[in-house]
Amino acid sequence: MTDQDTLIPVGKIIGTHGIKGLLKLYSYSGNIHSLQSAKTVFLKEKDGALREYTVKSVSAHAGGFILGLDSFSDINQVLFMTGSELCIKRSQLPVPDEDEYYWRDLIGLIVHTDQGVELGPLVDIFETGSNDIYVVRGRSKDYLIPAIADVIAHIDIPGKKMIITPLDGLLDL
Q1: With bands split at pLDDT 50, 70 and 90, how would you rate the model's confidence at 1?
Q2: How far is 104 from 35, CA to CA, in rounded Å?
Q3: In degrees rounded to 5, what are phi and psi of residue 78?
Q4: Can you give the pTM of this predicted structure?
């Protein structure tokens, strides 16, 4: 499987919407453009089965998304999908702008300070509304690093490395 064929988890089916076979989707990124660019999606069901479906529609709704899949027009046909993880092929994702990255590409980067101190791997990312927070697993504690230009000095995806310039006291928390 090439990198472009890699499946990227982009959300989770959290329920149905209406009676016409539409699904409520919690998006991991909140980015409707990545979902709208996909022609097909894969659902990883609770039992681990992976099934491909053709996308009929994607629309924003109440902080999440409503997803329509071809061949489904009744709520009873899609009930089993609740709890499934939604994935798309990396090749279907839009190319990120300069200085923008997919979370999947950042997870696992080894984070260093601009003074050469290795903090550890980036293990998780969460949104706060104003900016993302990178969770870096140190030897004795986790560091919460704000994803802002004043802190993130350099990201080297091929080199699997991130350089930060810590704000005063950031690493002491």
Answers
A1: very low
A2: 16
A3: -115, 0
A4: 0.70
